[in-house]
Amino acid sequence: MTTEIQLSRELTTQLLHLAQISPDAEICGLVSSQNNVPVRCYPIKNIAEQPHARFLLDPQQQISAMKQMRERGEELFAIYHSHPSAPACPSAIDLEETTYPEALMFIISLNTKGILELRAFQVANQNATEVRITL
């Protein structure tokens, strides 16, 4: 099990920016890696009925992103989403709906005053273990 990951400042900034420009709805997407190093972010439309409270990846965009990853020789590393008004911790729904246990879950919180928070979790059997992020 991974206990620490390294994220580039560029990728981190991109994820935080995507969350910032959508303060009222959860953003979501995929992060790919090459040789287990996160390299690229694939934003995907959130098609949930209540996008302010949950996320659901648009299936067509997800398939397209996975295809682009394969073509670039990348692998799925993480699935990210934001919590506009909740802490950067997996909710009960997040834990229940984890579909790729091999991928990390990145959560960006806009809940802290003026400070964005990005945390990573390994989720298995509806249990989340935090993974340290270093820049």
If you had to describe this structure to a student in words, what would you say it looks like?
The chain is α/β, with parallel strands linked by helices. The protein has one domain: Cytidine Deaminase, domain 2. It is 23% helix and 36% strand. The protein is built from three helices and seven strands, in the order βαββαβαβββ. The chain has a seven-stranded mixed β-sheet with strand order 1-7-6-5-4-2-3, sandwiched between helices. A hairpin with a 7-residue loop joins strand 5 and strand 6. The radius of gyration is 14 Å and the shape is globular. It starts with a strand and ends with a strand. The model has no long low-confidence stretch (mean pLDDT 94).
Summarize the model shown.
The protein is an alpha/beta fold and 135 residues long. The protein has one domain: Cytidine Deaminase, domain 2 (3-Layer(aba) Sandwich).
Largest sheet, strands/sense/barrel: 7 strands, mixed
Q: Give unreliable regions as ranges.
A: none
Overall radius of gyration? 14 Å
**Separate helix tally:** 3
Helical content, roughly? 10-25%
Q: How would you spell out the order of helices and strands? A: EHEEHEHEEE
Secondary-structure blueprint:
Elements: E1 4-6, H1 9-20, E2 28-34, E3 37-44, H2 59-72, E4 75-83, H3 92-96, E5 104-109, E6 117-124, E7 127-134
Parallel strand pairs: 1-7, 4-5
Antiparallel strand pairs: 2-3, 2-4, 5-6, 6-7
Offer a few descriptive terms.
seven-stranded mixed β-sheet; alpha/beta; globular; Cytidine Deaminase, domain 2; 135 residues
